[in-house]
Amino acid sequence: MRYEKIRVLLIEKDKDELLKICSIVKNETDIEIVGVTCELKYLSDFINRLHVNIVLMNIRLVKDTEKVKVIKSVTEKTKAQLIILNDQIDNRLIFEAFIAGAICYIDKSYNHIPNVIRLAYQNGHLKVLMLNLLSVRSFVA
To answer: How many other C-beta atoms are found inside a 10 Å radius of the C-beta of residue 119?
Structure first.
């Protein structure tokens, strides 16, 4: 099945955060949010059923002890690229997220989210780390 737009699943529980992200992405002609959930139990099935290209996940929804396991379940059981959203820079979690297969780890600089989605989709073989508004670093996977 071929789609014209980048298909994004947003995993977020905070309604204000959700509205901010959706309002920015809705004006993008090449990106479509095809699902929103805060339920992680059937995440892999949900991703595959919706033919998701990108998973945009607020990592705060996951218990600290489960974060790497959840990241691996997305990256190993689906074809989707995983972008981790976090409002804090946690060097240990960044490292573990990349080792587990996440493609991006970004702060909640909302206006940059569409470009990060495009970059992750177009360059799935690269791991991109965006620490703040001014710095983007790429690592070959």
So the answer is: 20
Distance CA 87, CA 53 (A): 23
HEC-encoded secondary structure of 57-90: EEHHHCCHHHHHHHHHHHHHHCCCEEEEECCCCC
Q: Are 26 and 19 in contact (CB under 8 A)?
A: no
Token readout for 75 is: 């990256």
4-35 pLDDT, tens digit per residue, is 899 999 998 888 888 899 999 988 999 999 99
pLDDT, tens digit, for every residue of 40-66?
Answer: 877 877 888 888 999 998 888 788 788
Q: Can you spell out the DSSP letters for 85-109?
A: E-SS--HHHHHHHHHHT-SEEE---
% helix, strand, coil for the chain, step of 5: 40, 30, 30
